[in-house]
Fold this protein.
Amino acid sequence: MDTEPATQPAHLRRELNIWEAIGISLALMAPSMAANINPQGTASTIGRAVPLAFALATVGVLLVAYTFVQLSRRFHHSGSVYGFVGATLGPRSGVVSGWSLAGTYIFYGVVTSVAGGRFAADFLNAIGVWHHPPTWSGFALAAAGLVLVWVLAVTPARGGTRTLLVVEAVTVTLILVVTVVVFVKLASHTAPGGLGVDWSVFSVPKGTGASAVFLGVVFGFLSFAGFEAAATLGEEAKHPRRDIPRAILGVAIFGGVYFVVVTAVESMGFGTSAKGVAAFVNSQSLMGDLGSSYVASWVGTVITAGAMISAFGCALASAVGASRLIYALGRDGVSLRFFDHVSATRGTPTRAAAGVVLAMYAIIAFTWFVLRGDPFTLFLQSGTIGTLILLVVYVLATIGMMRLVFFSGERVAGAWQVVIPIAGLLVLGYTLFRNIWPLPTGVAWWGPTVAIAWIVLGIGWVMARPAATRRAGELLTQAEGLTPLAGSALVPAGHAPASPTDRMSPTDRT
């Protein structure tokens, strides 16, 4: 007979290994989708020099990865960045970070659903179901995909994530195979159109300024989004202080090599001439088109199908993340209490999920029917909005980590290492500055303007409700299992301060 008290709270099982931690970060980063569409946003600003922009983004991501490595070495809990920011920089910063992250997820949901719609249109055309679909097909198929996203977002279907991971792994493998084939044909001068290896893809075209380069770097950061997701598995990993930092850093390094190599071959495969760059930007599926022209038509179709599934999988992850944030803010009295609801049968925040998906629909409908825009423009602008907001969150997290690791009175890292987060702040800050000043004109105006407006709205809401914000910060900190101590040092709730060695488990010490 089970003699455990009926009221004993359930705990997450510590059963995941490093490969499962790596898997969650790869699933949210979605390298197969990212390689098929994100480079087009970069090419639209700096032409052939796409891999150069992704190399710069890799440097920035590796510097930011240092923040998450330091965090995951000290804490092993399933928290979010905004709880950490709240515990290190105070409740106001924490709530602003939570609001900002919710915005990032909502706009990323639009980005990935529209990308999925574009891939779906190309796939249907390839298999003969919908010949030459019109431009608006990307909107229509994105809207159809969001119905499935909503259904899955309110349904506890964890088994589906394994299927997404398998599809992602197969598609990435196929992309790497095609990359090798394309490069070999380029090097042997047997490529279509007589194209060859052209290292000019790592140089900026004449007349292209630094501002344009860092506008393109934004889509490099967009491609890496989710690399730090392994940090949320701290309570489920067998050896969290060892495996989680390795997973985060490993995925960041893999992403950097993968994106630089793949985008370089993509740029060369389409050609570096004006005609080649135009074909690159207008492609419905970059690696899908290269697979069709360099290998076989069926290869391109399979890659496009995999990228489509990857895109809608990312949209699902975005909806789930945003709904949890909106629910938490509602529960803690910061956002509407209406969202403070969990379905008794499903065990998910159904109202918050519905609100998030409706927000995604509203953005798509506004662009489609009011602005008369096209899916790719919406992809570009939503990607810019979400990434700029995310960079602000990275800045706050980095500052909080610096305060904790280097200025809390506990020596947990060599003093010289402070140059790493400082360099990260410089890269993040310069990228942000170049994207908002001078403020772009025309359609590009929407990206930085909406990002600034979203953050300002969050700050205004926080300033208008100081008591609710203070209480929310306390609740968020408690929910994360963190307790702020004198000097801003943090330890898991219920534990006294200890040396770094004392905070390690016997297994982790080995």
